[in-house]
Prior knowledge:
The protein is an alpha/beta fold. It has helices spanning 2-13, 15-28, 30-43, 45-58, 60-74, 112-119, 146-151, 169-179, 191-204, 229-245, 254-260, 304-317, 349-355, 369-372, 377-384, 395-398, 413-425, 427-444, 449-457; strands spanning 95-98, 107-110, 129-134, 155-160, 182-185, 207-212, 248-251, 267-269, 289-294, 321-327, 339-342, 360-363, 388-392, 408-410.
Amino acid sequence: MxxxxxxxxxxEKNKDRIAEYKKLWRERNPEKVRKHKxxxxxxxxxxxxxxxxxxxxxxxxxxxxxxKIYSAVxxxxxxxxxxxxxxxxxxxxxxGHHKDxxxxxxxxxxxxxxxxxxxxxxxxxxxxxxLALRHRRSSVSKYRIDPLIDNLKANVRTELLRxxxxxxxxxxxxxxxxxxxxxxxxxxxxxxxxxxxHSMKKMAKAKxxxxxxxxxxQIPTGNISKGSASQFVNRGIMMTQSVSDADWVTVSTEPLKxxxxxxxxxxxxxxxYIIPSEWEFKRKKHDKVRIAWVWxxxxxxxxxxxxxxxxxxxxxxGDKVELIIMGTAISVYKDLKxxxxxxxPYTEYPKLFTELGIDISIAPLExxxxxxxxxxxxxxxxxxxxxxxxxxxxxxxEFSVKDGKTGYIADNESQWVRKLSFLIENExxxxxxxxxxxxxxLEDYTSFDKWDKFYQCI
Length: 458
C-alpha cells in the first residue's frame, strides 16, 4: 500500500518528465505506436463503427458542414493555409474549425492541438492563467501589457516585480504559480531580477513570454534611450538572455520578428491595437490649421527629417498655421515658431490629443533599423484623435497607411512640403482622409482576438 502511494506521489511530482519520456519514446518507435493503435482498433472495431454511425445520424448538420468544407478545399475554391490562426505555428495537418455549422464554408484554420482545445468539455478549466509582470507602471505597458488585463477573455492578473522584495524565491515562486501558469514580462531592470525570475519559473513550472516592441539592439546614436556605452551593452546582453531563455517571444512588427529570429524560434507578431472607448472626447475648433508632432527626446535624430519642410511651410502660410510640439515644454527648433505642450500621464493623453483639435499629425522618422521596428501606433492615435496623418516612408507607416487615402507618406523634403500644403489648403480632403482611416482602424485595429487565441494555445 505504501509502495503504491509512493509511486503515485513520484508520478505526480515527475509528470512533466514522464510526459517528455513518453513523447520521445513515441518519436523513436513509430512502428510500435502504429501497431498498438491498429491492435486497439481491431479489438474494438464493431463498437467504434457503431458509435460512429450513431454520431453521424445524430449530427447530420455537422457532417454536412465537414463534407462541404472538405469538397471546397479539394476543388480549390478555398485555400487551406499552412499556419494555425491561433498559435500561429506551421502545421502539416491544419484543420477547419466551425464556430457555426449553419455556415459550412466559414471556418477557423487550426492545428490539431488548438482544434482539440476548442472542442474540449473542460476548456474553461484548462484556460491558461496569465500573469503580467511589470517592474514599474508606465506608458511602456499601455499597448503591450494593459491590453492583456483589460481585453483578453483569459484569466489575467498583474503583479509588480520588485528587486528588493523581502520574500524568499520559494515564496515568490509559489505566489506567482497560484496567480498564473504563463508569465508575461517586458523589460527587466537588472541581471539579478532576471536570474530570480528564471529560478522561480523552474520552481513553479511556468512558461515565460517576453514581449518586445523596440529593437533595443540597434538604437541609433543621438537617441537618448541608448544611454551610455556600458548601459547599451549591458541592456543588450540582458535582453539577449531574456529573449533566448523565453518559451515564447511576442513582438509588435514583422521587422522585429526577423531581427530576433536568430535568438528564439518561437516568435509571434501580436500587432498593437487601439481601444476606441479611450478616445471618446470632443475636438475643439480653432481659427488656425494646427500641425502637431507628438515628440519626445528619443526623436532628436528624426528632427532633421522634417525641419526644412516646416520652415518652408511657416514662411509660406505664416499665422494661418500653428505648429505644435507635444511632449516638451521647451522649444526644440531654434528657427521655428512653435507651441510647446508638456507631456502628460498616458492616461490623460487621449483626452489632450483629441481636445487640441489637431488638423494634421506628422510622424517624421529617420530611415534606420531601429525605426523600422516601430509600430504604426502614431497613425492609430492620430486617426482616433481626428487628425489627418503624414508619416515618413519607413516600415510602420509605409505598409499600413494607404498613401492618399488613409494618410500620406513623405520620402523627402519636397514631398513633405507638397503634402502638408495640400492638406492645409483642403479641409475636405483632411475630413475624407480621417473618415477613411477611422473606418480602417475600427475594422482592423480594435479586436484582440489574435492575442486571446495565442495566449490560450501556448
